[in-house]
Amino acid sequence: MGRTAVARVNSLAQISRGGPEVAEASLSVLPDAAKFVFRGRPSSWPVAAEAFGVELPQAVNRFSVKGGRKAYCVGPDEWLLEAVGEDPGEIFHKLSESLASHSCSLVDVSHRSDTFEIGGTRSEYVLSHGCPLDLSEQQFPVGMCTRTLIGKSPVILSRTERAVFQIDVWRSFSSYVWGLLDEVRREFPSRSRQM
Amino acid sequence: MLLIKCPFCGPRPEIEFAYGGQAHIERPKDPMSLDDEAWAEYLYIRNNTRGVHSERWRHINGCARFFNVRRDTISDEILVTYKVGEAPDAVPEKDRPTKGGAVR
Fold first, then answer.
1. How far does A54 lie from chain B, in Å, by closest CA?
2. N or C terminus of chain B with fewer C-beta within 10 Å?
């Protein structure tokens, strides 16, 4: 069977265009990434880590980074593996070959979600309008990630820098979450409007 | 909003959780040997406790794991949370699973 080339369109492509520029809380769409959910028995963890090239954090709700690849620990035996700008097929093939003799599950979820970033001095404040977590640095330090809610939508929220959060959200909810945060940040003055 | 202590994630807001029904209900080892009444009891009959109740919760919008909670149904106070498979000292004898059926 021949392969049909289907161009992937980021679900935030439309809504992210032409918004206000707010320095206190800027929103930007992040590039598409290959994404996998990996779950397995402890014996398979180092194998997956080696094949993917990133250490799998053992602490729940922490992520590790190496180059353009990230491993988010979102549950005690569950990781979201992310490789920005890479081909999911190749990585999946490599991982599944390495893990063939192990009791585990690996699912390609590259199509499922899109990621955007909120950065700026008031990003924590803006997120708090929809997210019930305590986002202070003591409770949600840099390097933490977790599934949580923003408004009514489940997301994976991670803090990459003191004032920068990344939000991984399912495609069908992405414009809702973006729109919610965009509306909140409009209380701050916007510098210019691009059309 | 209530804070519920997930055994994996720590204290988290109530809206991240989903209720999972009464805890410590053991599936009968040999369902084929049960008559309809016993099977129906296993499937449908639950305590309606006024007071301390053992129940399952799931941190669906968090680590997504099931765990157990002991909650006072009068005050809504959560007394203890613990992982599935753990038997905390806080669980009194009368609330431990009975053979092949619901907690009495």
1. 21
2. N
